Protein: UDP-glucose 6-dehydrogenase
Organism: Adlercreutzia faecimuris
Amino acid sequence: MRIAVAGTGYVGLSLAVLLAQRNEVVAVDVVPSKVEALSRWESPIADAEIESWLAEAAAGERELSLAATLDGAAAYRDAELVVIATPTNYDPDRNFFDTRYVEQVVELVLGVNPSAVMVVKSTVPVGYAEELCARYPEGRFLFSPEFLREGRALHDNLHPSRVIVGVPRSSAFAGELEGAARAFAGLLVEGADAAERERENADGTRGIPVLVMGSTEAEAVKLFANTYLALRVSFFNELDTYAATRGLDAAEVIRGVCLEPRIGSHYNNPSFGYGGYCLPKDTKQLLANFDRVPQSLIRAIVEANRVRKDFVADEVVDRVMSLVYAGVEAPVVGVHRLTMKTGSDNFRASSVQGIMRRVRARGVPVVVYEPTLDAPDFYGAEVIRDLAEFKSRCDLIIANRWDDELADVGDKVYTRDLFRRD
Ligand SMILES: NC(=O)c1ccc[n+]([C@@H]2O[C@H](COP(=O)([O-])OP(=O)(O)OC[C@H]3O[C@@H](n4cnc5c(N)ncnc54)[C@H](O)[C@@H]3O)[C@@H](O)[C@H]2O)c1
């Protein structure tokens, strides 16, 4: 099948590579450097599997039918299927996702190839695909939620937890789209690791679970799933806040709580707050979707992150004050890495930035160690790329995630990474 993928970020590129095993794929982006990198079989994002698959394709050791272009119109004109994976940033003024980049692609596709099926992979507000059908009745839209994690994007699409495709009920093409939804799910399943098609699931079923449902339900799945993850992070963070305030050993409490099989000993490591590109914006979007629907929990999940960051910032400032009382003149706080996760290459909305802002607002000098950032400062805080210099200049180092490279200055480090894992 001829497929065009709009957007070569984590979502678009991992899908483009996955689908290029058995289909002719053209990846479209608006950033020339990304298209140029891909044309040289280099990944514009850090992702171990994508990087090695592209290198193997370049060496002729792996067959991938993948081209990259800035010319969206040409790519969409020839495609039977267009996968849309452009950004949907949260717009705090409108209190909603900004879906304009999705619509830019939709309008371009409708202009050159109105019968193409468009699968929206970007995360969108609940009800969005039905709105697209009302606004562009000639368009054939599907929505398929994406569950990958950054840094493991291709891995997660090779080993998907589930494949979900939503069909807008109001579409004039709803019947035809039901078949297209199953066909698209089939493309994702056939692109996955062969062993996944035979795997046994916890509920006794075999293979990758495929669900075809209404697009509004599918959109809700994505936002409720991410909000549940944010709830879990917030729960263990709040447990940690309680333990730290009352002088309890948080790790002991968490171990004891999580041995309950219905809770489980995973995804329970305290942090400075949930962060990254998706959880902060997706929880806010779900709260906005609850307009005139009774709730208290969803708002609490959004607010819990602010409360946690306030607490962590207070803890940091308390430690700074202790240093002052101990005779250190103007102690310097160092932020070790701006990234959200170990191994990640980007720091969109990472929680440590919230701590950094709060600490600086209290007049404490802050410097940053972030080797991937090629800039002299970050929001006014000096960036130091030399680790030894960073360690010697800082009186206190804050790290959302522990890194063994800090072992020799462990007594200076403030972290809530109790289990030393993501
Ligand atoms: N990053 C994740 O872990 C993740 C997981 C699930 C869902 N999502 C959702 O998927 C969407 C994309 O996320 P991402 O992390 O891949 O974003 P990204 O910012 O990494 O990549 C998006 C790409 O789209 C390109 N783009 C922008 N406008 C375009 C246009 N008109 N035509 C073609 N390309 C265009 C950008 O240049 C960029 O390269 C978002 O809605 C996000 O919420 C992301």
The chain is about 40% helix and 15% strand. The pocket of nicotinamide-adenine-dinucleotide is lined by residues 6-12, 28-31, 34, 72, 85-88, 101, 104-105, 122-123, 146, 148-150, 277-278 (CB under 6 Å). The radius of gyration is 23 Å. The longest strand covers residues 2-6.
